[in-house]
Write a sequence for this structure.
């Protein structure tokens, strides 16, 4: 029964590999060619490193927060993933092709071929710490450096466009809210002014406080007159003019106090009148304060959209400008081919030195 043959056995028994000098010439030449291709022509690696920016990194978080503006539309957790997805998008490749005029620079009028070329040659990857690198290997160092720089600019422009589109939508909503709040504020202010005119109060709250303060003033005045009356009666009789005058003053003060303490709503400066109008006043003031608060807040948020527009381009921080790596670049496919041929040569030589049992090499196949 013939034992199964391996791939090394089949290769070893090829006639051209039967002579040692032929094997040395073939494998030595192939290894030398692919080893040379690993280093020549010289290849260059261009790269740029960047990271998504946020208001904290810009030092504007306090100002943006006070204005109701938040520069990062995606949130800190998704910023790196979104930036990478934008960088790999067709829009970014189109922008890069236009900025560098790649069709003319590479002499390739087919846009689809250019898209495939960029997608294959340019690598965008994320590192720890939210850092993104854009790398490219090419024989043309200038082209590679220009491409990674153009990718970073295109990513920044695309993210800014997304931010600006969000800001425009937000501004439209805030304009409507500010308009509605302005109408509500006008109506509340008009109702409050009408209340002041109807009740003849320039400052309703101060007027009601003055009315309420009259009660203890009148009570204190009556008490003082009663003390004065007791002192006068020790000297004069009730028929004395001084005593009569004090009695008349006490009666007048008691009448005024009774009038102020009147609980029945009506006209005049009475407690009942104060209670009657205080409820209306508090309701009007509450509506006016709410309307003012809404208007001021919406207006502040609307002003914040202008800050968002100004900071929309500050969505990416470039950590390293486009540069060309100084280390010599090795073309890995060629190096892998050289190693593969070397290993195959070694396997053939080992097989010929120690063939499997029962499979001696025929004389015609031995080395000369």
């Amino acid at each position: 029964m013939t034992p199964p043959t391996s791939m090394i056995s089949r290769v070893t028994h090829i006639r051209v590999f039967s002579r040692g000098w032929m094997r040395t010439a073939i494998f030595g030449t192939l290894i030398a060619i692919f080893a040379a291709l690993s280093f020549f022509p010289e290849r260059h690696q261009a790269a740029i490193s960047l990271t998504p920016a946020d208001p904290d990194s810009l030092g504007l978080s306090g100002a943006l927060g006070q204005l109701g503006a938040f520069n990062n539309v995606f949130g800190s957790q998704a910023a790196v993933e979104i930036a990478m997805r934008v960088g790999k998008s067709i829009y970014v490749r189109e922008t890069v092709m236009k900025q560098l005029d790649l069709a003319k620079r590479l002499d390739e009028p087919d846009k689809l071929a250019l898209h495939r070329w960029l997608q294959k040659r340019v690598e965008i990857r994320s590192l720890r710490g939210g850092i993104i690198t854009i790398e490219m290997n090419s024989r043309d160092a200038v082209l590679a450096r220009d491409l990674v720089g153009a990718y970073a600019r295109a990513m920044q422009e695309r993210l800014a466009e997304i931010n600006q589109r969000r800001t425009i939508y937000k501004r439209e909503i805030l304009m409507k809210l500010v308009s509605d709040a302005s109408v509500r504020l006008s109506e509340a202010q008009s109702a409050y002014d009408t209340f002041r005119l109807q009740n003849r109060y320039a400052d309703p709250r101060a007027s009601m406080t003055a009315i309420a303060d009259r009660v203890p003033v009148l009570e204190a005045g009556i008490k003082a007159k009663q003390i004065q009356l007791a002192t006068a009666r020790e000297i004069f009789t009730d028929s004395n003019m001084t005593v009569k005058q004090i009695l008349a003053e006490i009666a007048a003060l008691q009448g005024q106090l009774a009038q102020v303490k009147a609980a029945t709503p009506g006209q005049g400066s009475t407690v009942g009148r104060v209670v009657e109008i205080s409820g209306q006043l508090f309701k009007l003031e509450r509506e006016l304060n709410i309307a003012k608060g809404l208007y001021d807040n919406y207006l502040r948020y609307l002003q914040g959209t202008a800050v968002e527009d100004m900071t929309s381009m500050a969505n990416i921080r470039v950590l390293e400008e486009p540069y060309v790596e100084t280390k010599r670049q090795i073309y890995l496919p060629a190096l892998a081919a050289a190693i593969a041929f070397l290993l195959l040569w070694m396997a053939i030589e080992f097989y010929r030195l120690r063939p499997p049992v029962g499979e001696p090499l025929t004389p015609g196949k031995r080395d000369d």
